[in-house]
């Protein structure tokens, strides 16, 4: 079976696109690598942030749904998204967040030092001190100096009612158990970014509700369409309901709900974000897939203006 190479991206839901860009691009220093629409709901933006070219393992994306209700954190959800930063940069980040009026709590977990805080719409985020040489290089032209900049995704925390079937699936996907602290079980794969999955057993929580400030899904990496097909067959044989392969222009995707009810995706590494605009101007203009281009005038008319800064 082809190897799952860590997390490809994490997709969450935000309120307004402008506030989202101001936080993730201007404050956290990620590059806005694609400004497009939700292919299943083209009246709303889909924003992608990552490193210089949006490499898998660096990506966090957002559906901008200003009319959606606030999400409710509970079981069957991604509880938090963690980014990797250089091991000596937590002081820099604590000061940077404080200057923006954001309270950050420093703590330790599995011998990791990290800052925990909330982004816009109350989305739970973490910055984890990691070795500077690990993971992709940061975007060199961003607002944060390279020695302190985010190195990509570190991992996610899943909150589920019972953890055994979820962790069994993770082991099938190539994740190994590497630690346990109270209700938290850590799994790791050999990817170079986004290799950590923490599973929390949360039978005390009611079911979560998807909405603004919640994570919609977490996507895992596979090399190409052939390996993705292998995974689709293997997951179907496990009794999971898996979508057909969907063309997302920048990658191909399959989706399924893991046993704890978190929505998972397996996405191909390519073709990447330079298929429809040059690297130098990534994220500057609205990009639409070929099948939506005939509707461009209508879509641009209905999309809200983006205001930020």
From TrEMBL:
<feature type="domain" description="VOC">
    <location>
        <begin position="152"/>
        <end position="269"/>
    </location>
</feature>
<dbReference type="InterPro" id="IPR052537">
    <property type="entry name" value="Extradiol_RC_dioxygenase"/>
</dbReference>
<keyword id="KW-0560">Oxidoreductase</keyword>
<dbReference type="InterPro" id="IPR029068">
    <property type="entry name" value="Glyas_Bleomycin-R_OHBP_Dase"/>
</dbReference>
<dbReference type="GO" id="GO:0051213">
    <property type="term" value="F:dioxygenase activity"/>
</dbReference>
<feature type="domain" description="VOC">
    <location>
        <begin position="6"/>
        <end position="130"/>
    </location>
</feature>
<protein>
    <submittedName>
        <fullName>Glyoxalase/bleomycin resistance protein/dioxygenase superfamily protein</fullName>
    </submittedName>
</protein>
<keyword id="KW-0223">Dioxygenase</keyword>
<dbReference type="InterPro" id="IPR037523">
    <property type="entry name" value="VOC_core"/>
</dbReference>
<dbReference type="Pfam" id="PF00903">
    <property type="entry name" value="Glyoxalase"/>
</dbReference>
<dbReference type="InterPro" id="IPR004360">
    <property type="entry name" value="Glyas_Fos-R_dOase_dom"/>
</dbReference>
């Amino acid at each position: 079976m082809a190897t799952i190479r860590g997390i490809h991206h994490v997709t969450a839901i935000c309120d307004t696109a402008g506030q989202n860009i101001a936080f993730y691009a201007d404050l956290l220093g990620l590059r806005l690598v694609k400004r497009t629409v939700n292919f299943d709901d083209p009246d709303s933006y889909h924003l992608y942030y990552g490193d210089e070219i949006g490499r898998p393992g660096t990506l966090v994306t957002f559906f901008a749904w200003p009319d959606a209700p606030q999400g409710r954190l509970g079981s069957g959800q991604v509880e938090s998204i963690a980014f990797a930063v250089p091991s000596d940069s937590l002081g820099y980040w604590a000061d940077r967040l404080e200057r923006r009026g954001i309270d950050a709590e420093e703590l330790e977990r599995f011998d990791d030092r990290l800052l925990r805080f909330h982004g816009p719409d109350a989305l739970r985020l973490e910055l984890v001190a990691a070795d500077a040489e690990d993971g992709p290089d940061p975007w060199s032209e961003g607002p944060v100096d390279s020695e302190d900049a985010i190195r990509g995704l570190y991992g996610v925390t899943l909150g589920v009612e019972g953890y055994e079937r979820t962790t069994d699936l993770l082991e099938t996907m190539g994740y190994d158990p590497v630690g346990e602290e109270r209700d938290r079980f850590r799994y790791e794969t050999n990817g170079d970014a986004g290799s950590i999955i923490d599973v929390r057993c949360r039978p005390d929580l009611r079911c979560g509700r998807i909405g603004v400030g919640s994570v919609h899904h977490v996507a895992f990496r596979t090399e190409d369409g052939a390996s993705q097909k292998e995974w689709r067959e293997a997951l179907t044989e496990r009794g999971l309901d898996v979508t057909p392969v969907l063309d997302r222009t920048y990658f191909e995707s399959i989706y399924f709900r893991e046993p704890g009810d978190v929505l998972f995706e397996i996405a191909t590494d390519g073709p990447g974000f330079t298929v429809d605009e040059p690297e130098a101007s990534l994220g500057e203009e609205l990009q639409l897939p070929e099948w939506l281009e005939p509707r461009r005038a209508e879509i641009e008319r209905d999309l809200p203006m983006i205001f930020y800064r």
